[in-house]
Amino acid sequence: MPKKKKEILMLFERTFSALEAMGNPRLQLPIFYESPISLRFEIGPEEYSTRDPRYLRLAQWRAAFLYAKAAPFDTLLWVLYRTPLEETEIPELLSRFQEITRLPLPAEVLEQETTDSDGDPLIRVFFFWDLNQTPLKADNLLTEITRTDYRGFRELSSAVFFFRTDTPFLLHLYDDRGMDLVAADKEVLRPFYEDCHNWLLDYDLPRMNKIFANPKDTEPF
């Protein structure tokens, strides 16, 4: 048992160590704006209406493409937000997440008491999976995240984080609209910036161009 406890602590520590290296130690949202070196991709294609079946199909394809380009990941984190008024119990929600991912129980569960923007009580529950020990077939999870606004599992929206902790890197698909990529070293993100430039969100393109226009190892701002 002591050995298992040590492994759990290492999993938590390596994740938040990576977040600190990426400049967002508290995992603040929105990830793109809270992280110094980041990219924001438009996942849902603007040329199709959200009512067009092709919209979600293409969004899911883009999400899967970027995930495959970024893989492998060593840590999966799902953050569940709960208020005193929520009726659904946490075990029921976790069971649904497991059905979607085909994962076992998480390696570690942590709870954090905080408040929402109105000052009301809020609990953040962190579920960690060690993907080195339990590989994930991500296709179904990515698909379900893009469907959260279409009568899907709403607790997946902006709540699932894929980490590579040895070379700090984070992939955050928040729903059908977008995906953020974050790294401690901008050269890790450069292939995404160059190869998938047409998918970058136009609204935030000036910020991203400024980051990658600077010489290596200099501050973006």
Structure, described:
Pfam families: DUF3885. The chain has helices at 2-21, 31-34, 53-70, 90-101, 139-146, 186-195, 205-213, and strands at residues 38-42, 75-82, 108-115, 121-130, 160-164, 169-173, 178-183. Helix 3 (53-70) crosses helix 5 (139-146). By secondary structure, the chain is an alpha+beta fold. It contains seven helices and seven strands.
Concise structural overview:
The protein is α+β, with helices and mostly antiparallel strands and about 220 residues long. It has 7 helices and 7 strands; from the N terminus they run ααβαβαββαβββαα. Residues about 1-10 and about 215-220 have low confidence and may be disordered.
Quick check: average pLDDT?
91
Q: Helix proportion of residues, in percent?
A: 25-40%
Instruction: Characterize the main sheet.
Output: 7 strands, antiparallel
Structural class assignment: alpha+beta
Oligomer: single chain
Sheet with most strands: strand arrangement: 1-7-6-5-2-4-3
- As residue ranges, the low-confidence spans are 1-9, 215-221
Radius of gyration: 17 Å
How many strand elements? 7
N- to C-terminal distance:
47 Å
Q: Give helix and strand order, one letter per element, not per position.
A: HHEHEHEEHEEEHH
Global outline: globular
Number of helices: 7
Tell me the strand percentage band. Answer: 15-25%
InterPro entries: DUF3885
Pfam family, one: DUF3885
Organism: Anaerotignum lactatifermentans
Protein name: DUF3885 domain-containing protein
